[in-house]
Amino acid sequence: MSAESWSALSLSIRVAVLATVLNALVGIPLAYVLARRKFFGKTLLDLLVTLPLVLPPTVTGFYLIVLLGRRGWLGAPLYEATGWTVAFTWWAAVIAATVMALPLLVRTARAAIESVDRDLERAAHTLGRSELRTALEVTLPLARNGILAGLVLAFARALGEFGATLMLAGNIPGRTTTVPLAIYTAVQTGESGEVLSLVLLLTLLSGVVLVLAGRLGARAT
Amino acid sequence: MSVILGLLLVLLLAVPASAQELTLSVAVSMKEAVEEIGALFVTAHPGVTLRHNFGASGDLQKQIEAGAPVDVFVSAAARQMDELEAKRLIAGATRRPFARNVLVVIAPADSRVDVSRPDALLDAKVTRIAIGNPKTVPVGQYAEESLRALGIWDRVRSKLVFAENVRQVLDYVNRGEVDAGFVYTTDAATRAGRVKEAFRPSEDTYRPVVYPVAVVAGSRRQALATELVHLLVSPEGQAVLRRRGFQPSPAGAR
């Protein structure tokens, strides 16, 4: 593999790992809240998290630019205060991958949490456990396989993210060129032979992930 | 009888609604000019429909190499046309240089960062400079040549953001995502008010920006496509180009 392919692969793995960690931190509490709580704006929150699953990634990328660009709603104050912008950095790739992967984790984890027997939670309550401890000691461990399956799917989605990444992070060799972007560029410039190994690797990896997620999902039910 | 009529009907429906259709793959910096000249062409040829495929010349070249059903190719550099000609993918006899452009460095209109001369690009305040990806985008190739000739390529490299075509560079500057960008003067003119000209790299630092046009060898409408090429080099076509800020192709260019 060429130096550029290696650089794309190492960047992709870093981006996907970090995006999966962020997904776990944000997505698992979110899935729990959506599964077990009723609150004002729940439908809207569910919609916001799920939309990237069905929207064209370029539309999600567009919203991310409006939000985080140098003149964006959050991006402008950040730039004024620090002189730093997330766009065109590898953090942009992480954010794009996180947003695109989140619905996969949340939906899978939510379904797993919803299938946990509520009587077990009530039993924990009657034994004096708080809701937080019940969630941590009863609900989440019982939904473990579903949550893991969601995380595995989120990792695969983050690894393969293209559209939103291209829009927010650009395609800068060595800095934001992830594997999907490297493949795109190679085909555009007629050098697809160079990235054939990346194509095969990504296919293999995604296949392994699907099998793994399927097994975890099967054990969850 | 009715069976034959039915078959005829099927055949009729199978033919595209507009039998006279030309597909043009056009370097995106030529977008407005070619659209305007195309409108003249359609007026002169009733019943003809034009389909425009805009993009970076390098991408368009690869599409033609992959067998895209294109009739006319307008490139922003000789290189992409040369490569197609060497592979006999364009009808060499129809090739004409028809316009010339000039490189310009632009900045967001409200930018307070000084980029009025090449050296200013080295300043720490300039954090991001957009250029077309030199692998596929001619304006990026010209920008690289110019930055190398100016002796600052290696020092600005870490600030470079590669765009997929010249209009993306324009958009990055327009949105204020970058401090400076390399485009053609004609692109900058399409966003007057949102972007401002910072400086023009000396024209001896890069090859002349010449646009060649040619009929694609695989075109099934060679005659009609050749007429379109002729319109681009005609006084009528040249008048449109001049009004849009393009210069005439220099003598001896290909």
Please explain how this structure is put together.
The complex is a heterodimer of chains A (221) and B (254). With 221 residues, chain A is an all-alpha fold. Chain A has one domain: MetI-like (MetI-like fold). Chain A contains 11 helices and no strands. In chain A, helix 5 (90-114) packs antiparallel against helix 9 (163-169). The model of chain A has no long low-confidence stretch (mean pLDDT 92). The model of chain B is unreliable at 12-18 (pLDDT under 50). The relative contact order of chain B is 0.20. Chain B is α/β, with parallel strands linked by helices. Chain B folds into 2 domains: 19-100 and 209-243, D-Maltodextrin-Binding Protein, domain 2; 103-199, 3-Layer(aba) Sandwich (D-Maltodextrin-Binding Protein, domain 2). Helices cover 38% and strands 22% of the residues of chain B. The N and C termini of chain B lie far apart (57 Å). A 5-stranded mixed beta sheet of chain B has the order 2-1-3-10-4. The longest helix of chain B has 14 residues, at 31-44. Chain B is elongated and about 55 Å long. In chain B, helix 2 (31-44) links the parallel strand 1 and strand 2. Chain A binds chain B through residues 65, 69-71, 83, 85, 87-88, 170-173, 185, 187-190, and chain B through 58-59, 62, 65, 127-128, 133, 135-136, 160-164, 175-178.
| Average pLDDT reading of chain A | 92
Terminal Cα span of chain B: 57 Å
CATH architectural group of the largest domain in chain B:
3-Layer(aba) Sandwich
Shape of chain A: globular
The chain-level structural class of chain B is: alpha/beta
What is the domain total for the residues of chain B? 2
Low-confidence stretches of chain A: none
Brief summary:
By secondary structure, chain A is mainly alpha-helical. Chain A is 78% helix and 0% strand. Chain A is globular, with a radius of gyration of 19 Å.
